[in-house]
TrEMBL record:
This is Amino acid transporter. It is a multi-pass membrane protein. It comes from the Bacteria. The chain crosses the membrane at residues 50-74, 111-130, 136-156, 168-188, 208-227, 248-270, 290-319, 350-368, 374-398, 410-436, 448-469. One of its GO terms (molecular function) is transmembrane transporter activity. One of its GO terms (cellular component) is plasma membrane. It comes from Streptomyces phaeofaciens.
Amino acid sequence: MASMDIPADGPHEVARPAVRAVAAPRLTWLTLALMTTASVASLRAAPTMAVYGLACVFLYLVPAVVFLLPTALVSAELASGWNGGVYRWVSEGLSKPLGFLAVWCQFAMTIFYYPSLLAFVASTIAYVINPALASNGVYTAIVIMVLYWTGVWVSSRGTKALAGLSSWGLVIGTLVPGTILVVLGMVFLAQGNPSAAPMTASHLLPQWTGLASLVLIVNNFLSYSGMEMNAVHVSSLKNPAKEYPKSMFLAMGLVLLIFILPALAISWVVPADQTSLTAGVMQAFEAFFSYFHIGWMTPIAAVMLISASLAGMLTWLAGPSKGLLEISRNEGYLPPYLQKLNKHGIQQNILVTQGVVTTVIALMYALIPGVSSVYWIFSTITTQVYLIVYLLMFVAAIRLRRNQPDHPRGYRVPALTLVCVTGWLASAAALVIGFVPPSQFGGNSVGAYVAFVGGGLLVLGVLIPWAFLKFRKPSWRMEGGDAE
């Protein structure tokens, strides 16, 4: 979920001759489609869907139609009419407190996102050192803590080089290994080897064993989140009304290919009951490389995946917290301690506080049996918290269209109400389904699963933002404070 924003014109642009200023920066619809693909696509979720074999196609297509597309279109209209991101959209459409809730949830989801991301990194590193470590909770916890605090140290120094990491992450850690995985898988099948998962038409739909059989679809909503990030570029298109939908349809197709094909490749070689939700990609690479007698490539594949994940973490580590900081300095939503900047202009106190919570979460990997189970719980909590943002955004979009119909917009969504209702219902359904444990957890852990997910959602998505709004003081407001 790394954004590839085009740098805005800086002060140096003003000093250039006027003739240069006439030509406004433009994006082609193809460029925007590739940028959006880079923002959304990742191999990290592939093992989660690989356990469903051919049915992963269905499980990816459904949220793409009812969530990915509505999110992309609605955020484009909002971004083309109101700058300031989701806080501005929800504040003007609903209220400032709800706007704070939206931007808080954007930040809070990273509290569980980073542990799950770094758990994936830990399992990948294990395949370079000792594959048995991939299922070791203590090892996973140590790696999460070391990498996160290293990331905080790097980010707190305001390293500008981090800005371009997302584009390299897409190529090195997603496109190249993803292509290798799929090509090897196709050659593997072409040589007459049987697929570990059935690939017949009767397996296109997931086997119905109760609501739990569809729970993994919830994780796909998080996989698709981030479409609103690049919506800010809609005004840079020559003809937004025609080019933006075309760009989003192409991006959706590319994202689906990047998600579906590697997931299928994993299912061809790793049986569902042996697939690790954190190490599934490396399981597939190891199996393919062993079969083709090129085992020396396993560490190379691991390094590529690690580089992409770490680039994504560093690129995003300070992003959501910076947005929260800027709004809080103007409106007084956070205590002064959390609003302080270090000498590099970075919100170090927020990062450190978040790091303490991340450390506690990391320890759960050591205390709760089954790394895959912990990984799935944290991924679900991340999705639940982030879904609150979209629930608010869809309602705000309808209210803004009704209350400010004449407000200038570079792009208008056809049948906006229908699109918003579809996206809202899909988000609400995903939030509810997220409380049902997937079939892999069995019946004995249902109570613990619901308690963890419900507790995480309640504390992060409701109680903490309510407490900030309830107890904030006028002295917390720092008007004119610069977060740069």
